[in-house]
Structure formats: structure tokens, C-alpha cells
Amino acid sequence: MRSKYVIWFAGGDRRQQYAAARLAQRLEAEVHVLGVLPEHRKVSGVLWCPEGVPAAPCDLLVLPIPASADGETVAAPLGSSPIPLAQLAAGTKSGALVLGGKCSPAVRTQFGAQQVEDYLGREELCLANAVPTAEGAIQTAMEQMPTTLHGGRALVVGYGRIGMALAPRLRALGMEVTVCARRCESRALAEMHGCRAVPPEELGAAAAQCNLVYNTVPALLLEEPVLRRMPPESLIIDLASRPGGTDFAAARRLGIPALLALALPAKVAPATAGEIIADTICNILKERGFAHERSDR
Q1: Peptide bond into 66 cis (omega under 30)
Q2: H helices present in 218-287, as ranges
Q3: Least C-beta-crowded within 10 Å: which of 24, 52, 87, 204?
Q4: What is the reported pLDDT for 51?
Q5: Which three-class secondary structure string do you get for 167-180?
């Protein structure tokens, strides 16, 4: 009889804990959470390993987002210190599956004998994550603005996953929403969703009419000529990956508040974000032929 499947969750924020708990519920597996001190533990049903690594080698290692910022360690902000990748690699079985977000070449090199997959590249995760990102973006605006969103005008730059999740929610709150998108089909889709849509060459004119601007495009689009046209009471919330798509230095000179709002799912809805990660992991396991679903679910 095969021994129980062993999963390690190493480091990361609260999302990792909730993901670990979800997998412990769904799978016939022994789930260990590494690098979390007792005062930061939020879930039950998992095995805690605050220091070092468990004695049982793992079949599946789950790294956080990003998997490693320096290529040598895994960040463990809820623990006492980062976890060395080499230590984790030594504790994984040969041929084990290693999953992480934003897996760099250095991470892949550390786990040369294992199978490494980037779960942040999965479309189902990115689509599901757009919802807590949109909700967090709206929460951020409510916290920062001296007015209600209702009756205001918002500009959403980009109409990908996040833009499509955000714009309808802003409209539902009573905002007039303009979408700036490069592709004509994206603009047609935005108009179908009840928004006004403009091409990038009209970005400055659109920004001049809005008091709330969201950027979702990882390219420098909100440059100083655009910023100069914005009303003085405007707020910019940049949701794109670092360094964002805003000239933040120019915004400071012009007195326009501009925030780079990263990792919103982890900040505003860690339980939901953790469940999204866990569900994505289950999909990956099924695709790879791992059958460890609990029979009592």
C-alpha cells in the first residue's frame, strides 16, 4: 500500500496557509506548512513546521508568489527567517512536482531533478484572481478618495482580465466608466458592457474628464503629458506589475496621488486567494495523472 502523499507549503503570506488547508480538505495527503510562527497561524488541519523542514520528503512542494525574489531563498514573512531553496530541494523526492508563482530560471536550476511548473501562468488562476483584485482596487479608492464613487468618472486603462472584472463593478456603483484599450475588439467589448471606449491616442483627453484612473497595463502609458491634463483632485491606482504604467515621479511633482497597488488578493481576500491557488493545484495534479482526491468529499 502506498504511503500517504506528502505536500510541503514553504513560506509566503496568508494565501499559502489557506491554500494548504484547502488541499488538506480535498486530498488524501499529509500537508506541512513551513516557516510560519505560532502567532501567525490562521488555519487548522495542517502540520506546522516553523523551523527547518519535515523529516518526510515531499511529493509536492508549493512555493509562494514569487517563488523566490533572489533565486536562493523563499520569503517567509510570517516566520523567523527566509527558507533556503537548497534546503527545500534536498527534501523533495526525485521527480517530485514543484509549483510556484513567477518561477525564475534560478528557481528552476535549484530543482533540476524535479518537475517545476508556474501556477501563476495558469489562465484559470489569473481569471479567478481578477475578482479579488477588482474588489481590492475599489476598496483602495474608497479609502483614498474624499468623495463617493457614485456619480464620479473612472478611466480604466487596459481591458484584459482585471479591466473586465473592474469596469462593470465600477458601473454598478454608479460611476461613468471609460475604457482605454489598444485593440478594437477590446473596445467593442467594453462598449457592449456599457462603458465608453477610446483608443490610446485619446488617453489624455479621457483622463482629463475623470477623477479616478486605474491602470492595468504593464507599460508606461500615464506619462507626464497625460498627467498634466488630469483634474487636480484625481487619484491614480496602478494595478500593473512592478514598476507599473505610471510616471510616479511626474505624478508627485504635479501633486496627483498615485498608488502602485500590488498583490491585492493577498491583502484584501487571502482566504479566497488561497482557495484559488489550491483549486489550480488540484487541476494541475489531475492533468499530470495524480489521483489523490479524498473519497469522503
Answers
A1: yes
A2: 224-227, 248-254, 264-268, 270-287
A3: 52
A4: 85
A5: HHHHHHCCCEEEEE
Residue 139 has pLDDT above 70, yes or no: yes
Residues 285 and 291: their CA atoms lie apart, in Å, by 7
pLDDT tens-digit profile of 194-234? Answer: 999 999 999 999 999 999 999 999 999 999 999 999 998 89
Candidates 11, 28, 8, 29; CA nearest to 75 is: 11
Give the angle subtended at the CA of 118 by the CAs of 113 and 121, to the nearest 5°.
155
More confident residue, 296 or 90: 90
pLDDT at 153: 97
Number of domains in the chain: 2
Closest CA to 264 of 102, 21, 65: 65
Please, which residues bridge with residue 176 across strands?
Answer: 153
HSE of 30, CA atoms in CB hemisphere, 13 A: 12
The answer on pLDDT for 67 being more than 90 is yes
Same domain, 24 and 110: yes
49 plus 132 within the same structural domain = no
Rounded CA separation 282/277 (Å): 9
For the chain, where are the alpha helices, taking DSSP H only? Answer: 14-26, 85-90, 105-110, 123-144, 161-172, 184-192, 203-207, 224-227, 248-254, 264-268, 270-287
Full residue range of the structural domain in which residue 194 is found: 125-262
The three three-digit cell numbers of residue 209, written as one number: 474628464
Q: What is the mean pLDDT of residues 47-54?
A: 90
Same structural domain for residues 131 and 149? yes
Contact (Cβ atoms closer than 8 angstroms) between residue 42 and residue 12: no
**Which phi and psi (to 5°) does residue 205 adopt?**
-65, -40
